[in-house]
Design a protein that fits this description.
By secondary structure, the protein is of the alpha+beta class. It has a domain at 72-192: Cytidine Deaminase, domain 2, CATH 3.40.140. It is 42% helix and 27% strand. The strands form two sheets. It has an eight-stranded mixed beta sheet with strand order 1-10-9-8-4-5-3-2. The chain is elongated, with a radius of gyration of 33 Å. Bound molecules: zinc ion. Zinc ion is lined by residues 152, 154, 161-162, 165, 183.
Length: 193
Amino acid sequence: MPSQVRILSAALMIKRKLHPVFEGINPEELEGPIVESSWRKPLLLLISVLLGVLIISLSFSDSLQGIIHSKTARNYQLTFPTATILFEGNTLALLQDEFIAHEDREIKACLFGRQEGSDYIIGNVEFPEIIRANVIHVVSVPCPVSTLIDLHGHPINKCLASEQDIETYSEMKQENPSLRMMIMCSSDRFALI
Ligand SMILES: [Zn+2]
């Protein structure tokens, strides 16, 4: 019907008519940046939050992994799934004193004693001469070949062996196949490699 068509086209004309405020402004120019910033800011915020959570969880999981794989000394004894370490005399106290006395750097110790099956009985502890050391690194004169366990310190609750530790350990084992490596990551927490 012609009258209805006329009404409809008149309505369309009204709809297309610009508000006086927008006169001389291209609506596309006006909308462009607003549309962009409305999603860009929250998205950037979301990405930074996710990255933050990822970094925190990665560093936390390192500590957590280390704690899972390490054991606390109880009754002068460390019980690992494949080995038990028994500290005779004042050997554990010597290690604890050394650890507490050098919070500013990693410690290094050579543990001597005897192995009986899966039991490692520690009868003597020596601290080799330190060449250089800081909170995350220690270089010392090597432990003697008769060493039962090569021990070094890590920052509190960082009990996981580093790639460098694994590399050094496999090199040392070539000379002394029965050698074990231990990481001391608090005054009473140890990880056996
Ligand atoms: Zn280490």
